[in-house]
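ok so for the tutorial part 2 we go from a plain amino acid sequence to predicted structure tokens. step 1 is just haveing the sequence, like this:
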Amino acid sequence: MKKAFVCSLLLAGLTASAAAQNQIGASSDAAANKKLAAKCGQLFKDTNTLANGSLCYRDNKETAEYFDLLSMVLLFSHPKVDQCRQYSRLEKEFKKQSFHHLEDKELKRLCAESREERDRLRRQVEAYMDSKIKQYAEEEAPRRGVPVDELLRKTVAEETERRAKADAFIRQKDGR
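step 2 — the prediction. this is what the tokens look like for a chain of 176 residues:
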């Protein structure tokens, strides 16, 4: 059940982005395309910053998985994710920003340099997730045959526990 909430956010994000894609359509306006390219570039950069957290905290499987989940929630909750996927040049840049290919010394340096931004993005995505928990419980509780309040309480407790574990590991690892 722990991942059910996050998976529902990813599914909702995909549905919303598909709807937005159908409403907006392809723009031939050069200024609009340039603006979209900038937004997509920022989205890819932010998503990568969170995804790289899984490498920065790879010593702890739960924390590494948590950062992977956060990056997916950020990516799939973005209203223009489908349009952004069309920018192959940006996708290549996205892959270049990954920490996967780095030596340990360089990885440690880049993890330290990106810590503030990673923390900011983490809090941003967690706030988004918090705003969706009640909706998730209201939609999911009838399917499970449990009261909404019970599922809401359980989901909040699980998310709180997951975040507390990640925080504890990060404080220990980063010496904070």
